[in-house]
Specification:
Chain lengths: 417, 509, 399
Amino acid sequence: MSEEEVIATSQTPAARLAAYVRGGGLIVPLITVVLAFVIGGFVVLLAGKDPIATYEAIWKGTGLQWLFPWTTGDDRAIAAINLQQTLLITTPLILTGLAVAFAFRAGLFNIGGNGQYIMGSIAAVWVGSSFAGMPAVLHVLLAMVAAVAAGAFWAGIAGFLKATVGAHEVITTIMLNYTAIYIGLYLFGLGGPLQSDTDRSVPVSNDIVEGAKLPVFWGDPVLQGLHIGIFIAIAALLVFWVVLNRSTTGYEVRAVGLNPEAARYSGMSVSKNYVLVMAACGAFAGLAGSLDVLGWQFRLATNDIQIAQAGFIGIAVALLGRNTALGTAAAALLFGALLSGTSQRNLDASVFEPELAANLTYIIQGLVIVIVSADVLVLGLLRRGRGFIGRGTGRSGPAPATAAARSDGAPPPEPGP
Amino acid sequence: MSTDNALELRGITKRFGPVVANDRVDFDLRRGEVHALLGENGAGKSTLMSILYGLYSPTEGEIYVDGERVEIDSPSKAIELGIGMVHQHFMLVPVMTVAENIVLGAEPRSGGGMLDVREARARVRELSERYGLAVDPDSVIEDVTVGTQQRVEILKTLYRGARILVLDEPTAVLTAQEAADLFKVLKTLQEAGVGIVFISHKLGEVLEIADRVTVLRRGKKIDTVSTEGATEQSLARLMVGRDVLLRVDKPSAKPADPVLEVEDLRVLDDRELEAVRGLSMEVRGGEIVALAGVDGNGQQELVESIAGLRVPEAGHIRVAGKDVTGRGVRATTEAGVAHIAEDRQLRGLVLDFTLTENLALREYREAPLSKNGFLSIKNMRRRANELLVEYDVRGRDADLPASSLSGGNQQKVCIAREIASNPQLLIAHQPTRGLDVGAIEFVHRRLVSERDSGRGILLVSLEFEEVRSLADRILVIYEGQIVGEFSPDASEEELGIAMTGGKAGKTPA
Amino acid sequence: MSALAEAVAPSRVGAREIAWGALVLGVLAAFIALPPIMLRTPVPSLILAVAALGGGIFVVREGEKRLGWIAIVVAVLAGVGAVAATQTNESSLDAVFVWSALFAAMLRFATPLTFAALGGLLCERSGVINIGLEGMMLMGAFFGIFGADLTGSWLLGCLIGMASGGALAVIHAVLSVSFRADQVVSGFGLNFLALGITGYVFVAHYGDQGTPGDVPRVPNVSLPGIEDVGFFGEAIGNANLLTWVALLLVVLTAVFLFRTPRGLRLRSVGEKPRAAETVGVSVIRTRYIAVIVSGFLAALGGAYLSIALLGSFTENMTAGRGYIALAAVIFGAWRPFGALVAALLFGFSSALAQRLPEFSESTAVLFQALPYVLTLVVVAGVVGRSRPPASIGIPYVKE
């Protein structure tokens, strides 16, 4: 046997385990979440608070208790309202998660979800507040299409730059994020072109026409019940899965993400795929923006633009969900619950201040991303194996963002003499 | 324990898990001798030398330098002991100069801790003159020839006072002239008392340059003989353990119409220099044409152009009569070109894809593997299973990732996929690189049988033996042009001369 | 590229000089339309801009792509800017283009970028991508002022800030070098971590009031004599101590990188780690040190923001500067003086964006995006034309 074969065959059992994990094993994400929350708990401890009580208080606010049959009476009613909030927050996270996951599958790191979301919401609010007489279904569709187009365009810029000059999509999308914020601030600011016609003293947009609002199917519309947007988000999940795993486009995307050189050698156009993928991701994120605008925001203030972070949370969602459809859904729910549970209205301030809790969620997001980046760490905990790089260009989780970022398509690291 | 010996390795054993890479190997080196280490790929030569250089530690065994027992736990230690290694793949920093590369890690300093550039230059010049290794200290590594780079590597070791020099397959990347120059340098070093370990699998060279030869096979030392009285055949027998047929037996070719016509092709390389300069050639169905030449003379760019990966500046490429010049990989695939790429892990396979997915890489866009943009997983799997059986790929679960296969099996997957697309022209670029003897035999036999089914095969290989064994015609490429056409009976000299620009053989049409 | 070899092919010399010339012409084109010259017709500017454009295109054709493209962009911007300037009334131009104030502001904005860029430079030269510069800056920004408040000394505050950046950098080093994690992802995660940690401690400790107004600040250095002299007086006569430190550091880094043995080794680790390892240089140790030093430097840049420039901390106050610093590293071709030029350029755009509201309120907000858009243009136009260290982003496996 050549020495290469020596090394390759001696790791076959490990390779099988890796394949199992890649195939969708739940263990790794679970460990990731547990680790992140445990470390987060330490942070809480360091701040002099009780981590268990804190997590309990957060849990109370999520409304997930409603899913359990033993929750009854008043508790059940409260939980229902909380769960509506949770799902309301989860809806855009599913989509912004997909916006990152799809990119990762292609080997791209789309940090621009937030900017794409903002552009989408701008487009949605503009279309939604114009065309007063339009029939409802058409109006909603038009607004969503506009949002999708805006998001796709915004992301497409980064994709185009990556495909043509190899510009690092991390930097370009981040810059586009900030630019989007300023565009929003300009448009809806005092004296801005899209500022409200009715109230000129507040930096806010026009209101969405009644007919363009998404119908609420659970809960009281007055109390911000759950709108049908969640079904759209779930539909997007399905589209994601089908396209990625059953279509030739998805096959190409995955090939490009795992080994752009081999993809090129098989006749795939790596550049075209980059642009397509980024545009699709922008479409997802833009759609998320429209669902929020048409579903519960109904107008955009400059303040909304500045505090928007669905796009950023999407990154942790995608990474935790290992860039798969099911994983993204589960992770989106997790973060939706976390955000809902730590929000001003749900979190018991005596246990933990909500402002602090907001930062706690950042820490947990950061931990999730960091832990996932070193998936070797978690896999190592699983099997105490040697991390071996000879497995080729990468893992199916966070795709080799660094490898793909090298526009010269450099070869993977040599395994040694 | 003779103190004549600069180096002694005793009972060296190295295990990687269940695999025994070196099995109780003894090896000694006298001062001022050239001692060759011979063996096939995977015989354990590189592992043995890596142990010597401190990159691995032996599972068992002892090392003696100048009669004293030593433990070599890192390259620094090896360097301290006077052991210098010239690797097969050079360990040079491309963007730095010759002098910078040589002094790296042992830099001369001027007052205040600054790098003393003049001193570095001076020392390099002095060593260079003393041993006859001509280099310009200020030239940048990526701009100099491979032969020069090798001289830099040797100077690196001499700069650090090496008395034992290990050369790993040094002539693999050299032209015949550069190899001759190297041998002259080695003689000079010998006279200066430096002991040289010469690792190779090229029998002819070993006989020419070495005083003694140690043969390894499957991790064991078979024998150490003097080169006096040895022949290529006797060495080959030791290497492989049986009488080796140095050529594949094959029926003669029955060439038909041309499947590939290249006319006056001009192609630029990545640095926008002309790599292919007005090259013309053809390959007919039913024959194997080998493209022989030293690496870097345009083979890469030529193959990429034919495969559709690179757009030529001028000229034409026709596959089975259809013009595919610059039209991209999909067009060439449709026209009937298949390409067994040079680096299977980088270009031939997506290692994290399953075998099923990898086997679909060429034809996933067409029925039966897909319909209306949607993949038919069922058909993909069926195709995969058929191919895995036909090519006898061990570890046959089609849902395993390609990374779990051995090198030989991975190459089989690549070949299976390419041939399954039923090409008119099959390009095989270094198809047996890094494979063991069994896998090499399989690939060779398969290529011949595909030739006999009427396909045209363009073989690009740097291995002399492979070229002579498989080819019906040999085209030598030099500086972007075909400079000679030879029959497989041509001698190594003739081919070597052509490969370095001399004139021999039939001039191309 | 190397200190030892000025291996410049003859044909390049001509092209480079033409490129520089085109660049100068472009800048001149913009300059003559602005105060103090303030020509009121765009014609001379356009002539110069077209000349610059032509020069740039010619140079790109000749192969000097990087400088050529920069010249082209400058020419276009200058042309557009000149036309816009001639359309604006003179008093507005006078209000905005007070060159000495602009210069001083440019230095102020460039200082944090310079620190972070130098850190990023060293890190990337060793082969490790550092997207986490933003987070390290933020750590330095908060813990710097926090430390200064607690200890009553701006010096100790700076050191504490640097240490906090170093701590974050240690995590990045462990992940990237030892665990061979995906460096981009891990760096990005650290930014979130930093956001959360700084915000958390900030709110927990300072609650609603924010940092106190009387935290000791890093002093400005007034240069006697120069201080009152016209342009220079306002421009550099009263710059902050850290600004001078940053400039000094640029020189020191350049000397270190290109003229010392350790700098040579650092570069070799980033270009071809295996080559370095085989001559006894420890790749792992070198990378660890480089990453941690980058943490120190980025944090110092952040500390400048809070302790020197603004005297306070607000959540997420770095606002993307860490990423802009990274773009500066790329734009400067991974060389200290290049990064400085880039930092000055971005600093100038921020300075301009700060003054432009003087003449148009509502569009002022849009101009705030100028540094980010500029970064986008720079990254798009420059990446791929300059070569990063060859082994960047590739985890190193030691056998």
